Amino acid sequence: MTEKKTVALLCGGRSSEHPISLITAAGVLGAIDRTAYDVITIGITRDGRWYLTDEQQLAELTAGTRGTAEFPEGTQQVFLPMGAGDSRLTLVDAEGNVTRTAPVDVVFPLLHGPFGEDGTVQGLLEMADLHYVGCGVTASAVGMDKHFMKVAFESAGLEVGPYEVVTNRQWEHEDREQILERVLKLGFPMFVKPTRAGSSFGITKVDSVEELVPAIEEARRHDPKIIIEAGIVGREIECAVLDGHHGEMPRASYPGEIEVVDQDHGFYDFEAKYVSESSAVTVCPANLPQDVQDRLRELAVKAFLALDGEGLSRADFFYTEDGRLVINEVNTMPGFTPISMYKTMWENTGISYTDLISELLTLAMERPLGLR
């Protein structure tokens, strides 16, 4: 019988997506194969401290949550090793007593947004010589930044929609009228977004000149660098990507489509994603011609490779009336909640929730440490 592996699962974090991470972690803990893996669950507070937690505490935090759950401080603080071949975590209780965990085989960073999905934690884990699920430092950083992501896509020959970027330096020191003039050339509607945030936080659909500056200020509350994207008329189609083993080509799921059925939601916003149970429905495989499905899956893999992705990603496209597939963005650590699209698309493609988690952990342990 194969010896069980030890997984360190990270959740919470410093970003505005802290509560979503907790929901994701609760879902993974409920589905992971306990006959193959022992789990050490670590909750990261909003100010960045790491504490041991467990499934029961996460269940209490996420029960009936409306996106407000926060991880409370625990009694044992967690510290990573810093290389030297020691993969045990150090635990320090409130009295200063020190203990060590079993050696950690792989880390599953179920963290969304800045300080978790953007290459920062990935760099920390690289420094600690720990295997981890998901993209590396560069792919995570580029995949978190909607501006540089589009630059990478364009370089790879993928079609992206019209957009403008407004940096903090520009907004604070340049002529705002000139900035607004170039932004208004995108036309209405447009979407104003924080460049490095997710889960629809800080996003505003703008339909008039009067709405633009307030939308920019709202996005800047989440990120000093913002991106403004022209509205694209088309269906929103997603596709999940799973890396190949030992350098083989990545795999793409059947594409899925989210249909927002509640007219109170002008787009697939935070409320529709995580709060309302009746705002949206998922269709997978999406109702598309077979050749379009095949092309979309190829483009999802192409986007993954454009970022030098590893492990997993979810690619989001617009399918226009004239048959174009315009890539909007990728998510390098998509949600794993019971209703998340990534999990749902792979289930409909033939990989169960439990098997998907095992596959991701296996891919992470196969991957060599260091430069690759």
Automatic annotation (TrEMBL):
Sites binding ATP sit at 146, 191-193, 199-200, 229-236, 328-329
What protein am I looking at?
A: D-alanine--D-alanine ligase
Keywords assigned by UniProt? ATP-binding, Cell shape, Cell wall biogenesis/degradation, Cytoplasm, Ligase, Magnesium, Manganese, Metal-binding, Nucleotide-binding, Peptidoglycan synthesis
Quote the catalytic residue positions.
Answer: E17, S199, S340
Spell out the subcellular localization from the entry: Cytoplasm
The source's superkingdom equals: Bacteria
Instruction: Name the job this protein performs.
Output: Cell wall formation.
The source organism is Rothia mucilaginosa M508
**Molecular function terms, GO-annotated:** ATP binding; D-alanine-D-alanine ligase activity; metal ion binding
- Note the InterPro entries from the entry: ATP-grasp, ATP_grasp_subdomain_1, D-Ala_lig_Van_CS, D_ala_D_ala, Dala_Dala_lig_C, Dala_Dala_lig_N, PreATP-grasp_dom_sf
